[in-house]
Structures are given as structure tokens and as C-alpha cells.
TrEMBL record, chains A, B:
Alphabetized Gene3D superfamilies for the sequence: Homeodomain-like, Tetracycline Repressor, domain 2
Residue ranges of DNA binding: 38-57
One Pfam short name: TetR_N
PROSITE patterns: HTH_TETR_2
Protein name: TetR/AcrR family transcriptional regulator
Gene Ontology MF term list: DNA-binding transcription factor activity; transcription cis-regulatory region binding
Domain HTH tetR-type residue range list: 15-75
Species, as recorded: Kocuria coralli
Length: 201, 201
């Protein structure tokens, strides 16, 4: 929130609050690309005027920032909740992986936008840094679990966290709520592959 | 190759043969997005005229098709080579995963372009179909290895091949030849995670 106007004034036209506005805008960004989307195009999709959008946000970039924060705040909240628990690193790693699957499914449009960010502005650079920090934290859990003797030491601790997050993040390209199983089922498959592999015991 | 002109005529200006032209064009597509790249922009990056590009190809879409075929032909060649070998499905699965890591590293710009295709034209739809067929073939190897008793049956055979390919494909976002280890080292990590998981034996 970068505005201090009262909520009643912030509303554009009846039918959109700030949350609903963001939901539409993130879909338009994902469909046409953020850079190729003008405020005019957003207004057209929303069926309101550009100035009605400016009642909610100060710029297109603020819409981007709000969208990226939505995904990153959720991911970081998952990590923080798990980090606080008195569990071995290997168990925290599994919980973080399951949590990231859950966030991806619940916030799919926001995570999709996040994964396309390439660092073209301050907002994008900050988002990339937060995304990299999350991957680094996954790497630290792996390293700690290696020290504990719970995770094999004959794998690259640089490549492994990136491969694991790549496995989870690929879901934006193929996960659909029907036909594949719910998020808990996919989280199970992710956790089983990551920790124990596909091979039959 | 959609032209039958002799090679000498196909060359634009001294300095580019068709292969080198493609190498530059795929980088420009990846940097600016295929849709946002005009033939004029390609000519500018190449330092030649548009008509010099038309000595090599008939359209921008032909450049896209040649680029996507480069990635897909390589992937399919890996699959075909492995498929012909008299090995248990679980071993063929491992070889296909290792082969796809190798193709990704060797053809990274072409694979990067392939992974961004969303089906906006016939060429893109065909490429998506070929990409999906590859993933389906990985799924068939998993199913066969499950029948053989070599791969666990308590995982989703729909999600697993997509997660595995997602793990490999994520490399376009983070793999660099230095600092991470060579392709064989990353292929090792992929194969170990996929088959046996991270957990210490």
C-alpha cells in the first residue's frame, strides 16, 4: 500500500476493489507480457478508465511490485514457518518443498509472473534477489542435512537446490487443478522424488 | 532446409552462412522475445540488410522453425539412440535424462527459445506437440519401469515425467559453464536425484 487515501476513495468503479483489480492485471501481464502491457490495455481489459486504475495504484510498476510481493511474501512465509520448527534439516527441507508446491498452486498467476522476471527494473531486480535468497535457503538446508549425515554428499550442493526449485516451478507450465491430482498429491510426488528418488526400494 | 538454391547463392554478405545467421537470430529472439523481434531488428543486429536475410530464409517464421527444430531434432535423436538399446526401461530412463541435460547445454539458446513457445502459430503448435511427445515418452519409460518393478508405483505417473523434465529444463535459467560444473556433473546430480533421491543411503 503506497497510498493513504481512505478505502472508499481508492475504489475505482463499483465492481473492483484493489484485490480484484490486481487479479485481472496479473492475468493480463501473463498473457501479453508485462513490458508489452500498457495502462491503456489494462483499462480496456478491466472495462474502466485509466484514471480509475490510478485511484488504486500510482503506476503500472506498482501493480508489478504488488503482484511479485504476493508470490514472494507467501514463499517466504512458508520458509519462516518451517524454519522456526525444531526439526532436523532434512525434514525442514521436505516441508519447504511441500510448502512451495502449495504456494505455487494457490498463487499460480503471481508465481508465473515472478518466474518470468528478468531484472529489467529496480522492482524486478529486488524480486530476483528475493527469489535467489529463497533458493539459497533451500541450499543451506541441503548443506546442513549433509552435515547431519541425512543427505548424500556426492551431489552438487550448488546444482541441487536449483534443480529442486526447477522441478517445483515447472508446475506453472503444466499443473491444472483437474486431471493431475490436487496440490497435496503433487507435493507428495515432489517430496518422494527429491528425497528418495523414483527407484523402487 | 526449405530452399533448393545452391549454398553460394544462399549466403548473404561475406561473414554469415546460414548457421551463423541462425545463431545470431536465436539470441535476438531470446533477448527481446520472438513476437517483439522484427526482420528489421534482426537485420540491425546482424549488420546486414533485410534482403540479405531473405537470401537465407523466406520469413521470420522460418527462422523460428529452424531454431525450434534444432532443439527438438537433438532431443529426439537422444531418445531414439537410447530407445534402440536393449536395456531395462529404468536404465533407458536414466540415459534419456542424461541425454536431455547434454542437449540442453549444447543447444542452450535453441532449447531456451523452445521452452518459451506458447502455441501462437502452426510452427509453435507443432513444436509444442513434439515437446509433449518427448515428455510422454519419458512417462512411458517410467510406466514400463514400474511394470518391471524397478520404479515405485506410489507416485503419480502423470506428474513425474513433467517434474523430471521441469528439473532439467530449469537449467536454461541458471546453468553456466563455469562455477556449476560441466554438463556431465549436472547430469549426474539430475540422475541421482531422479532415481535415488537426496537422502543418504
Amino acid at each position: 500500500m503506497t497510498t493513504t487515501q481512505p478505502a472508499a476513495v481508492r475504489r475505482g468503479r463499483p465492481g473492483y476493489d484493489r484485490e480484484q483489480l490486481l487479479q485481472v492485471c496479473v492475468e493480463v501481464f501473463n498473457q501479453h507480457g508485462y513490458d508489452a502491457t500498457s495502462m491503456g490495455k489494462l483499462a480496456e481489459h478491466l472495462g474502466i478508465t485509466k484514471s480509475a486504475i490510478y485511484h488504486h495504484v500510482s503506476s503500472k510498476e506498482e501493480l508489478l511490485e504488488l503482484s511479485l510481493n504476493r508470490a514472494l511474501d507467501s514463499l517466504e512465509a512458508e520458509y519462516d514457518a518451517v524454519h522456526a520448527r525444531p526439526l532436523p534439516a532434512v525434514e525442514r527441507l521436505e516441508l519447504v518443498l511441500r510448502g512451495s508446491v502449495r504456494v505455487l498452486v494457490e498463487q499460480m498467476p503471481y508465481v508465473t509472473l515472478l518466474l518470468r522476471v528478468r531484472g529489467n527494473s529496480e522492482v524486478e531486480i529486488t524480486a530476483l534477489q528475493r527469489r535467489r535468497r529463497f533458493t539459497r535457503q533451500v541450499g543451506e538446508l541441503i548443506a546442513q542435512a549433509q552435515d547431519d549425515g541425512d543427505i548424500r554428499t556426492d551431489i552438487s550442493a550448488v546444482a541441487a537446490p536449483r534443480l529442486l526449485m526447477g522441478m517445483v516451478n515447472s508446475m506453472v507450465d503444466w499443473y491444472r487443478p483437474t486431471g493431475i491430482g490436487g496440490p497435496e498429491e503433487v507435493a507428495d510426488t515432489v517430496a518422494k522424488i527429491a528425497l528418495d528418488g523414483l527407484r523402487a526400494p
